[in-house]
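Narrative of activities, Objective 1.

The group set out to show that a structural description can be obtained from nothing but a protein's sequence at a throughput compatible with the screening campaign. Below is one input-output pair from the validation batch, recorded exactly as produced.
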Amino acid sequence: MSVKMGEYLFEGRFDSLDDLKERAGVFAILCRMEDTNYLIDVGEAGKVKSAVGEHERHECWNEYCKGDLFYVVHYTPGMRQNARAEIEQAIRGQYKVPCGGE
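Output recorded for this entry:
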């Protein structure tokens, strides 16, 4: 399965951190409730698996998701951090994201 957000295609539905790769990318945290997927958070990291597993917004994800949490990832090999951050901000600008908004 893959998920399109804006112009970007994300791999997943990953239900476990074990399914994520320790590679650079943009990740999205989604919640499945009543047959609908909701975007909870989006972020970028040089090591996606570690970033998601150690993320400071876990409490926010659990607060907003009363269904099943899962992950999708747009891996970005060779892309610099500032380019990943631009993708993250583009997605935040297109969707209501309850966790991590400034």
